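F.,

This is the one I mentioned.
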């Protein structure tokens, strides 16, 4: 759990400094900074998506995952929960955006899963240490760009990181096959990349998408790979007959 604690502390530190700095930044500068962050998030999303080995698996996972997420009301429920928290802590207009955006951004990605598995099985926190530095910097810039109101949402995303990565670390042993299987991991990464691109589009004010509804895609992508393997084996058996 050392890596997760370090990651959580980095987000808290980055967001805290960002809140202090962002208080004195003019709104037009904050808007410019947010657009720049949007471009960076889109670029990271594209990079992750390109790691997919079969775009059809990612497309199927995103489409079906989005339908499943919409049916379950994941995004609506997340926004309702965030709004409940905002009212209790007295957050401002950008509180929800900071909390939801950074929670997804800091938790979706290959470094999260790999780092937590290494931490849980080997006590190796090198990967999570690198992620902590990146998340800390990201939290600083998001808190700065969103101002004081949104910065507190970014700060609270550290709690999500602690809970989510802590759970992954505790489940490291059963999750290890996902990290060891390059095909499974590639499609999980590709699906996560699509979600990051969706976040980037929202930050750029191009299109606001219910990103949380696509979270089931992270579970569906490896299932599609496994189903594809079974189908391929059956075809080979039939061909041999």
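My design for it:
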């Amino acid at each position: 759990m050392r890596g997760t604690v370090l990651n959580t502390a980095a987000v808290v530190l980055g967001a805290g400094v960002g809140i202090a700095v962002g208080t004195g930044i003019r709104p037009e500068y904050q808007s410019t900074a947010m657009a720049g962050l949007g471009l960076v998030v889109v670029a990271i999303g594209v990079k992750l998506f390109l790691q997919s080995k079969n775009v059809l698996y990612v497309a199927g996972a995103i489409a079906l995952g989005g339908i499943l997420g919409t049916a379950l009301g994941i995004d609506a429920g997340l926004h309702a929960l965030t709004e409940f928290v905002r009212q209790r802590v007295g957050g401002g207009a950008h509180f929800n955006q900071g909390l939801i955006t950074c929670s997804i951004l800091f938790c979706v990605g290959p470094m999260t899963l790999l780092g937590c598995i290494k931490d849980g099985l080997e006590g190796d926190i090198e990967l999570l240490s690198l992620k902590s530095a990146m998340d800390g910097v990201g939290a600083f810039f998001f808190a700065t760009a969103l101002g004081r109101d949104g910065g507190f949402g970014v700060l609270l995303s550290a709690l999500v990181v602690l809970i989510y990565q802590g759970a992954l670390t505790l489940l490291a042993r059963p999750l290890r096959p996902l990290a060891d299987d390059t095909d499974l991991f590639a499609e999980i990464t590709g699906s996560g990349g699509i979600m990051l691109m969706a976040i980037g589009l929202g930050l750029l004010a191009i299109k606001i998408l219910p990103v949380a509804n696509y979270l089931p895609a992270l579970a569906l992508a490896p299932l599609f790979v496994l189903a594809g393997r079974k189908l391929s084996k059956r075809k080979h058996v039939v061909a041999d007959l």
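The CA atoms of residues 104 and 148 lie 20 Å apart.

Talk soon.
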